[in-house]
Design brief:
Blueprint lengths: L2 H14 L11 E2 L5 E6 L5 E5 L14 E4 L6 H14 L3 E11 L2 E11 L1
Antiparallel strand pairs: 1-5, 2-3, 3-4, 5-6
């Protein structure tokens, strides 16, 4: 993405109030990482992968990716921040709480994030 496009996205985020950290009350915080893959699942939920497994306090069975459920509070805002972070290569810290079952294994649930 060129500098002009980046500035446009950052300005758009600031105007929409999306550049502020979106947090959840209580829950674990992952290590800061760059997103390597984003995927949309059949139900509309988003899977988020990084180079290393996501850390989580809830001891989910598999942390190779975390899940943003389609029914999550502020789904659109969190998804927009994930897309921007991935496009820009900006690292994120995910706020995760609880586990959800995907492909027979429990995975961390994304409740919010910080983008750097």
């Amino acid at each position: 993405m060129n500098t002009r496009t980046s500035r446009f996205f950052i300005t758009a985020l600031l105007c929409c109030g999306l550049a502020l950290p979106i947090t959840a009350s209580a829950g674990g915080v992952t290590a800061k990482q760059q997103i390597t893959k984003l995927g949309m699942m059949a139900d509309g939920s988003v899977r988020v992968s990084a180079a290393k497994p996501w850390t989580n306090k809830d001891n989910c069975q598999n942390t190779s990716y975390a899940v943003l459920p389609v029914k999550a509070a502020r789904f659109d805002r969190i998804y927009a921040m994930l897309l921007l972070s991935h496009a820009e290569g900006a690292p994120v810290t995910l706020i995760v709480k609880g586990c959800t079952r995907v492909a027979g294994k429990s995975r961390p649930v994304i409740k919010g994030l910080y983008m750097y």
